[in-house]
Structures are given as structure tokens and as C-alpha cells.
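Quick note —
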Amino acid sequence: MNIYIENHGFVYETENIVRMFFPNEKLPIIKEYTAQKEKPCVVTTVTYLPDGNTLLCTGVLIGDFEKYSEEKLTAGESDEKTQERMLAVCLYRLLCDYSGRSQPWGILTGVRPIKLFRKLREEYGEKYAKDYFTEKLLVSSQKTEMSAITEKNERRIIELSRPDSFSLYISIPFCPSRCSYCSFVSQTIESAKKLISPYFDLLLKEIEYTSEIVRKNGLRLESVYVGGGTPTTLDPDKLFRLISKVMACFDMSTCREFTIEAGRPDTIDEDKLSAILNGGVDRISINPQTLNDNVLQVIGRKHTSEQFISAFKLARDLGFSHINTDLIAGLPADTPESFRYTIEKICEMDPESITVHTLAMKRSSRLNISGVETGGSGYAGQMLDFAQKKLFSCGYIPYYLYRQTRMEGNLENVGWSKPGYEGIYNIYVMDETHTVIGCGAGAVTKLRDPGSTELIRIFNYKYPYEYISGFEEMLKRKNGVVEFYDKLS
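Predicted structure written out below.
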């Protein structure tokens, strides 16, 4: 599927609109004007007229389907933002006509729809924000209402953040095995066993180095999140040492939440959970993704649903008062009926928070490379609809929402919680509310200027072996945090 771009620079948005309808196709971008267009293709053209008006032209040429659309913008409304949006609207409508289906999020392709909704609400009011979503971005009424509810629930958490606030992210990039849908920078224990101890020792040094920078700049810690990978691939001693290092290095008196992902049930035992709990962590995430064993086998999870249930009960019996579970809609071999079973069973177990993801077919994942058929966008939509109704009925509220590229059905991920159990790190990192400082392989530090929307990124090395060999150089990058706050002061 060729995309012809003529006389405009709206490449990113145009490509994303086409990808909604053709998620697995290669989409070559052709910027030069060519009179003869190679089918199948879409065409987008901007023409500036002598009278100051602008003519937007789009076309979809696929097989026997050949349709064009024109939209004229007056000089007063022909700013670049409006041009980009209207070009997307025209192209989207043609593709809806061709495919016979619309998209739940309309032309909205961004990762952070709630952040956009908040900006519109703060500037013009909630009614304007809702109308803009439905009328200008063609978002469905259901997704618009979900955005409004989620934004309201997020607001109280965001307002707790201060200009000197930050959150800490720590990466443990090891897993017992690689899930077929995964594209994260993580390595299996089998392939990286020799790297774990040297990596861990350097990680503790980076945490200590980072704490000195934080202290010198007077930053206030709001939340800690230890992710990966699977942090519970570490043994109990290393888990306790990691938590103790954080507790010793940072002022925890302002920290509102300390989360560790205990994501894989097959990595959990009583000693590890006790080390986490006794260390002072107040939130863990145990993630089955599904409670259907045949689906677990297809996606490469080396555990059963019964192992998850046992791990969850063990954590509860030991005294964990905030357990999150992650689920995925649209997995291969899953059906609306089997997904319904998962949701109902999880609700019976009564976790404090539940995150319902939609499968995202990342290009580097084994699932995408192998060409395995998934449940399809129709199923994923049904699954999310059922989850929403069930979770609302059980007293859960949506507290954060984000989207990814190549998601089944162009849908979304939603964090649900009982009131008062929102995962605040998730809100802060997704809203880009304040600075997030990352430690470990693959971690990214995002420095937020409290006086603007500016974000400065500092990248750690991606892979454990790079992290180990380039550790001193990587620490030098952290000095960018000092330079950033020196400029602010």
C-alpha cells in the first residue's frame, strides 16, 4: 500500500490513519509528485490557492474502489494544525467507506488521549472537550465518555504533584522466558544468567549515584516503580538488598507508593514475597494475562492459571494489601467466552486494581514475526466492552488510559482500581506530570520542566551487557539531570 504525500509534511499522521485500516502492511511513503499512481494506494495533497484559501485533496485507490475527496479551507482557518486534522478527517472517511467500518478513537492516533482531553477541559471546559473529541476527532461517544471519567479520576492524583516532584523507575531486564507478544528489552534467565550478579551490583551503584543528584537538587520523591522484565527473577536476598538500597538512599517520607512487578507467577514464592513485604513495598503486580491455560501455552507463558491463583492467595495471606493484576484482550486462541471467564474469576479474587491491556502487535515480537492469527479486532472490542461493564459493576473505576501503535482494533489499555487504590506511578508517567528518573538497562529519564510541557530525555544503555560495559559513561549521562535543574534555578 503506497502513501503519496504531495506538498505537505503531515507524514506521521497520514501514515497512522492508514495503518488503522491496514495494520500489518508495509506502507511506503512517496513524497514526489507522480502523475501515475501505483495501486493500491492513498493520495494526500495540499494546494495553496491564489486567493489565500487552501485545497485539501485525498484519494483511496484499491482495486475497483477509487474515490476522492476535497475540502477547502479559508485563509482564516488554514493554519497547519487545522490542515493536518482536516486532511486526516477526509482520508479517514474515505477509508471507512472503503472498509465498511469506523474506528472507536476516530482519527485520534496519539498515545495519551486523556492528556489531550485534560488540556481541552482546562482551557475551554468539559463540554468543549467532549464536543471536540466527537465532532473534530470523530471519537465514538463511548470512548469520549470513558475519557471524561478517566480524566476526572486522574485529576486528584495529578494535583498532588509539585514542581519539585519526581518518580523513580528501576529496571530489572530479566525474565524466565520471553512471551510471544513481548517487545521489551529483556533477556531470559537461561541466556543471561552470568550477567545478573554484575548487573545487579552496578544497579545498586547507579541508584546511590542517582540519590546524590536528587538530594543536591532538592527533589521530592512521589513514587517508586520496579519493573522489567520480571523483577522477581531475582532471588530473595537481591530483592531485599534492592529495596533496602532505595530505602536508605532516598527520603521515603514523601513517597506515596512503592511498586514491584511480580509479574510472572512462576517466579513467586514465599521467601521472595516476604522479602518484598518486609522491605517496605506496598504494591505488587501479579500478572496472569489470561486464566485460560491453552492461551498461556500459545503466548509462551511458562505457568498455569492455577499457579497464578496460588501466588495471589499466598501474597494475600502474607499481608499484601494492594495487589494489581494485568490482563490482555485479543490474545491468540482467546475468545469472548474465555476472556469473560478470566474477568469474572479475577473479580471474584478481588484485587485492588486490574489493568486491562489490548494486545499490541509489536514488529519485533515473536507473535508478529511468526504471523500467528490473533482473536481479531472484533473480539478485542467485545472483550473490552464486557470488561468495562463488569468492572464498573464491581466498583472499579478507570484511573488511567493510554494507547499503543498496532493495537488490536485500534483500542486502548485501561487501568482500573477500587477508589483510593489508583496506581499513581502509572498516572504520573503516562501524563508526563513530573520528572521520572530511570535506573537500569533500558530505563529512560524524562526531565519535566514544571513551567512548560518540555521534556528532556536521557537514555540508559538498552541491554544488560551494554549497561555493564558502558557503566561509567552512562553515569556521566546522569549529569544531564544536574545541568537541567541548574538551568531551571
